[in-house]
């Protein structure tokens, strides 16, 4: 919200420099986001237009004679709105102006325009940097003193404030004045709101009935007759403009002015257009329609609160007036509405009709129920003052359930307990009083509490105060948050519970990074399009929505974009898309991983949030090097990563042929631990690679962290290191092509004293029979008790070879 | 057959002579091993002769034996000498070897890094762990109840405007709608439901907003929530804890501001801002020309929120805070576009 310090200055003497004031307000909870200084106009003064004559050489230009103090100058002027008698901003030669066309700052030179010397310039708002308006010159209020430097007369500082939702009372000039008053120990000067009344009483002319008091707690109205509709005085227009509002006519401008001043939205009806002299605040009936001020016909129903006359709705309460009862140039009598509507009513309505106005914005925050009458009186006075209105005697005030203000107990001890700030009871009373709170110190110390309590009643404009903590904040923010001491937590340290999940995640991250993988974090929300790419069912025609591998991922009801519509049921889609993006710019080897949640729907419950690891390898085995290429990636690169990871986690796993439909059927495996499938790995299926526009071989590893968590991983156990030397033997075994290495290895490992088994060559080709392959295996033997002799090893190995031969038909390669 | 002693002695002479001559020509350790096998090995002539001496008469055996062992000793010491010479020569020649171009690149090994957000989260969590906070987590998909209602933000509350929400279920009453949590604060209630004071936890996690993305706004971001509840916890403790955090993360010199602010679930509420790292408080585009950058919201847990967590606000008090994570690396490294984080361009990620 923008606020003019000049305007603010009418209610309170501003003794602090603008920057300091801004800082104090910010510290106390009302953030000043920007301080804009209007002014600094050198060589510019207030002038009066004495004469306007045609330019002899140009139809569209005029010669204006402007009076300054003791001086008359003639300028050439092209503005259509210049007229005799106007007070105008006048720039002498040498003044700095903003060029109305280019927007650049220029120095005003004396110049001949079409043969006539122009001795200065009458300026537009744009040329002064006040607004973008450049259609005509700026006209100053008639009371502007001739010859006064413009900066002195027109200069202002505008604060751009961020008012938090709990403080609708601060969405107005008086509200800010009250804050300043409390912060500087001053008093607010309230504007006049008295007026003269006619003989006739309002009760005979208007009746108000609140049919829905749950939505409209209070409705006040006054009636003003004999009104002259015209434009409002220039000073008032300027006030509205300083806030960024467009002046319309005196009636609308006064209601807006009072809203900016007091924070209460008001609405003016043309009294003669209201049927039956009645105002009924009710829910609309289904089927009712009304055309609003913006000339849009609105269909209404029971969810909409309307202001109706005897026959039909005349306004959508708190949101927008009806076109039919609008104040026009012919209007002579005005029914002025100042009401309170509940915040939910207005919020719902504003959203439904997509009408957000200054009025709805205030109502939505929940305004004080005591405010309508105060604002009504102020506005009524202005109608009398500025629109020649005659005010009918009295006001209508329908206020069915006026609540009794309740006292809240607070003590110095409570301030200390919550804020950690020592404040005496006197100081607390002083601060609260300065904010308009009423404090009664009569309450005696209760038994439970040590220090005396005071009973505090909030002022009518503070609808946000409901408990002692609220009062503590008031006290502390005025004394100053910078006065709160800084201490460290000293109480008992809570018991620390182990968190295996965090530990596991951290260890996996460390290992993956150590293996040369870059961590990425992709969006939890993904698109149907990406998920469909993972489906091997032909991609065209597109799948029906949600038909993804038989289950529908959880969908966001109001997605921002199609790209982020579904909660990811896997990490693959996002990671593959990330890889594709990076392949476009990175030619070498790419290794990525992500640890994150996937979301599996569970009916109407919250989804299961399962933590997964997904890793991808693509490109060369290693980066380009002068030491030579190492060739393309293959399955065993991925398996090596999986093995290293699992070894790092001290998890024993075996690998079985896999059937994951996103992976190549020939080159994929399942990772099994204790019979439980904890993950998969393999070469990405070429169709999936194609769908994601990936190039080259891509390996994928995916591990389910939830399943890992159920194992007792990381259990460390000490076994002594053997002191006696190891003996290593190499053998070359010829076996059938179908025999898996796993079968061979498990037989070898079943023998005593075998400590290590390493495959170091795999051969198929001319030197061995067809349908066979040869494993070259290094076996390490070691005894914990003695140095092994050749004979001992020979004996074991012979038995081993016999077993391999019997079991697998393996023979030693000759 | 046994050789006469004379013949044995002759042979020994010959072996010694031949061995010595050959040893002179040995130039590397491989040859030396062969020489050793040839003249001193188990199957060498000398060994055979020495073994065969047993068949000689005692007197001759002694004579030939003495000579035989002499020869063996001579050959062994010659071997040792030659070994030494060769070793010296090897070291000398290795020092003479043509120098490597050490500026040639080494064998390239893949380097992995953690995402800058993970790095920041680790750093933040470590600071609080040092102050006795424990890390816990909550779900990303939440009930309206935890995200809003229990935090004093009922339906149609104006503060709902502060949280543009992505809904799973269209907004329905009674806290029964599912949504993507807009902040990590729902964890406050969840923690209170599970633990009894003293409580001291931090909750890192992903949050989501219905928001068009631009250089400073993301639809997904990380927050770290903090909650401490016990007897006698005050706002001074909150201030001290957060100032200490800022000191650890941003350095001793960085000015910190603690001001009044509003969040429906705390009272009194506060905001912590640090002096802008880009302009050092002078005002610039990064800080919106204010010189300050807001980094977190905080406050004393609202008594109504404590009650919902079944904690008596008359007995206990506590503070809570919540901070956006992306902003920290953005400030520290001068990153000008928040979208870079989840765009995952390796050219960006590899800088951290
Ligand atoms: Zn800055």
Q: Your description of this structure?
A:
The complex is a heterodimer of chains A (814) and B (352). Helices cover 25% and strands 28% of the residues of chain A. With 814 residues, chain A is α+β, with helices and mostly antiparallel strands. Chain A folds into six domains: 2-38 and 158-184, Phenylalanyl-tRNA Synthetase, Chain B, domain 1; 44-154, OB fold (Dihydrolipoamide Acetyltransferase, E2P) (Beta Barrel), CATH 2.40.50.140; 197-398, Phenylalanyl-tRNA Synthetase, Chain B, domain 3, CATH 3.50.40; 408-483, Phenylalanyl-tRNA Synthetase, Chain B, domain 1; 500-712, Bira Bifunctional Protein, Domain 2 (BirA Bifunctional Protein, domain 2), CATH 3.30.930; 727-812, Alpha-Beta Plaits (2-Layer Sandwich). The relative contact order of chain A is 0.06. Mean pLDDT of chain A is 90; it is low at 537-549. By secondary structure, chain B is an alpha+beta fold. Chain B folds into two domains: 5-97; 116-138 and 187-349, Bira Bifunctional Protein, Domain 2 (BirA Bifunctional Protein, domain 2). The longest helix of chain B is centred in the first third of the chain and has 39 residues, at 58-96. The interface between A and B is large, with 95 and 91 residues. Residues 276, 278-279, 283-284, 286-287, 291 of chain B line the site of zinc ion.
């Amino acid at each position: 919200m923008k606020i003019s310090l000049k305007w603010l200055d009418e209610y309170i003497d501003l003794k602090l420099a603008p920057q300091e004031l801004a800082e104090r307000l910010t510290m106390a909870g009302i953030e000043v986001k920007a301080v804009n200084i209007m002014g600094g106009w050198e060589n510019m003064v207030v002038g009066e237009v004495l004469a306007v004559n045609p330019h002899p050489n140009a139809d569209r230009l005029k010669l204006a004679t402007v009076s300054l103090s003791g001086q008359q100058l003639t300028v050439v002027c092209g503005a259509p709105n210049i007229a005799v008698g106007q007070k105008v901003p006048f720039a002498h030669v040498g003044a700095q102006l903003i060029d109305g066309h280019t927007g650049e700052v220029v120095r005003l030179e004396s110049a001949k325009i079409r043969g006539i010397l122009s001795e200065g310039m009458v300026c537009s708002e744009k040329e002064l940097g006040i607004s973008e308006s450049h259609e005509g010159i700026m006209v100053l209020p008639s009371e502007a003193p001739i010859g006064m430097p413009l900066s002195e007369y027109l200069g202002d500082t505008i604060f751009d404030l961020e008012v938090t939702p709990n403080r609708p009372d601060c969405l107005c000039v008086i509200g800010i004045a009250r804050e300043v008053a409390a912060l500087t120990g001053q008093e607010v000067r309230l504007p006049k709101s008295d007026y003269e009344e006619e003989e006739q009483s309002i009760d005979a002319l208007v009746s108000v009935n609140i049919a829905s008091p749950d939505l409209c707690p209070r409705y006040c109205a006054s009636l003003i007759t004999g009104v002259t509709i015209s434009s409002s005085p220039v000073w008032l227009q300027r006030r509205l403009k300083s806030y960024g509002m467009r002046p319309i006519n005196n009636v609308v401008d006064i209601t807006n002015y009072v809203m900016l001043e007091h924070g209460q939205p008001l609405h003016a009806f043309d009294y003669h257009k209201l049927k039956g002299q009645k105002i009924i605040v009710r829910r609309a009936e289904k089927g009712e329609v009304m055309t609003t001020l913006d000339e849009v016909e609105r269909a209404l129903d029971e969810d909409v609160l309307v202001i109706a006359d005897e026959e039909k709705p005349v306004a959508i309460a708190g949101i927008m007036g009806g076109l039919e009862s609008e104040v026009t140039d012919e209007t002579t009598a005005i029914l002025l509405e100042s009401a309170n509507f509940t915040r939910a009513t207005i919020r719902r309505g504003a959203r439904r009709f997509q009408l957000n106005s200054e009025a709805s914005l205030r109502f939505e925050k929940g305004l004080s129920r005591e405010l309508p009458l105060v604002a009504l009186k102020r506005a009524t006075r202005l109608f009398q003052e500025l629109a020649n209105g005659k005010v009918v005697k009295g006001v209508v005030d329908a206020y069915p359930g006026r609540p009794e203000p309740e006292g809240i107990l607070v003590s110095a001890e409570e301030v200390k307990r919550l804020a950690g700030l020592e404040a005496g009871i006197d100081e607390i009373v002083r601060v609260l009083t300065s904010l308009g709170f009423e404090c009664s110190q009569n309450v005696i110390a209760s038994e439970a509490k040590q220090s005396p309590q005071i009973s505090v009643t909030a002022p009518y404009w503070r609808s946000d105060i409901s408990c002692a903590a609220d009062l503590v904040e008031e006290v502390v923010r005025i004394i100053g948050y910078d006065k709160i001491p800084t201490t460290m937590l000293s109480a008992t340290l809570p018991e620390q519970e182990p968190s295996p999940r965090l530990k596991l995640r951290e260890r996996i991250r460390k290992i993956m990074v150590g293996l040369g993988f870059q961590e990425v974090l992709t969006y939890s929300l993904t698109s149907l399009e990406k998920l469909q790419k993972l489906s091997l069912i032909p991609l065209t025609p597109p799948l029906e929505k949600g038909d993804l591998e038989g289950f529908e991922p959880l969908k966001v009801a109001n997605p921002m974009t199609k790209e982020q519509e579904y909660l990811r049921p896997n990490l693959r889609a996002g990671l593959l898309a990330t890889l594709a993006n990076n392949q476009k710019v990175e030619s070498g080897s790419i290794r990525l991983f992500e640890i994150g949640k996937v979301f599996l729907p569970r009916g109407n419950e919250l989804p299961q949030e399962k933590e997964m690891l997904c890793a991808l390898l693509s490109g060369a085995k290693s980066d380009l090097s002068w030491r030579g290429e190492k060739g393309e990636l293959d399955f065993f690169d991925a398996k090596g990563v999986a093995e290293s990871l699992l070894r790092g986690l001290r998890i024993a796993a075996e690998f079985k042929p896999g059937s994951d439909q996103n992976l190549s059927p020939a080159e994929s495996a399942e990772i099994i631990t204790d019979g439980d499938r904890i993950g998969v790995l393999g070469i990405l299926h070429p169709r999936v690679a194609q769908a994601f526009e990936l190039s080259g071989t891509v390996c994928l590893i995916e591990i389910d962290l939830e399943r890992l968590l159920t194992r007792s991983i990381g259990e460390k156990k000490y076994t002594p290191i053997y002191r006696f030397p190891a003996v290593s033997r190499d053998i070359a075994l010829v076996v059938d092509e179908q025999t898996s290495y796993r079968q061979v290895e498990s037989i070898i490992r079943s023998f005593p004293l075998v400590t290590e088994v390493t495959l170091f060559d795999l051969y198929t080709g001319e030197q061995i029979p067809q349908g066979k392959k040869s494993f070259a295996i290094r076996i390490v033997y070691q005894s914990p008790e003695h140095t092994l002799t050749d004979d001992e090893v020979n004996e074991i190995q012979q038995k081993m070879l016999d077993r391999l031969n019997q079991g697998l038909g393996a023979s030693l390669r000759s | 057959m046994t050789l006469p002693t004379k013949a044995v002695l002759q042979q020994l002479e010959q072996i010694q002579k031949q061995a010595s001559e050959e040893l002179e020509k040995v130039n590397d350790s491989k040859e030396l091993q062969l020489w050793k096998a040839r003249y001193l090995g188990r199957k060498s002539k000398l060994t055979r002769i020495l073994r065969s001496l047993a068949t000689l008469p005692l007197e001759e055996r002694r004579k030939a034996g003495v000579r035989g062992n002499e020869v063996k000793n001579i050959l062994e010491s010659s071997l040792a000498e030659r070994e030494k010479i060769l070793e010296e020569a090897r070291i000398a020649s290795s020092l003479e070897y043509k120098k490597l171009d050490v500026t040639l690149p080494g064998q390239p090994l893949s380097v992995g890094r953690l995402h800058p957000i993970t790095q920041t989260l680790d750093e933040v969590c470590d600071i609080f762990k040092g102050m006795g906070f424990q890390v816990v987590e909550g779900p990303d998909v939440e009930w309206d109840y935890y995200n809003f209602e229990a935090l004093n933000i009922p339906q149609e509350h104006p503060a709902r405007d502060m949280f543009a929400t992505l809904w799973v279920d269209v907004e329905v009453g009674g806290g029964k709608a599912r949504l993507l949590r807009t902040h990590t604060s729902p964890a406050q209630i969840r923690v209170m439901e599970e633990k009894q004071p003293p409580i001291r936890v931090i909750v890192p996690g992903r949050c989501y907003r219905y928001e068009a993305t631009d250089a400073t706004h993301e639809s997904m971001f990380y927050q770290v929530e903090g909650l401490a509840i016990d007897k006698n916890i005050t706002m001074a403790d909150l201030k001290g804890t957060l100032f200490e955090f800022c000191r650890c993360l941003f350095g001793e010199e960085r000015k910190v501001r603690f001001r009044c602010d509003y969040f429906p679930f705390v009272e009194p509420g506060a905001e912590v801002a640090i002096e802008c790292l880009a302009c050092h408080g002078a005002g610039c585009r990064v800080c919106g020309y204010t010189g300050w950058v807001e980094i977190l919201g905080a406050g004393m847990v609202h008594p109504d929120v404590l009650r919902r967590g079944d904690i008596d606000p008359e007995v206990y008090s506590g503070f809570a805070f919540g901070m956006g994570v992306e902003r920290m690396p953005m400030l520290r490294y001068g990153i000008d576009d928040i979208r870079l984080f989840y765009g995952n361009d390796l050219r960006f990620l590899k800088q951290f």
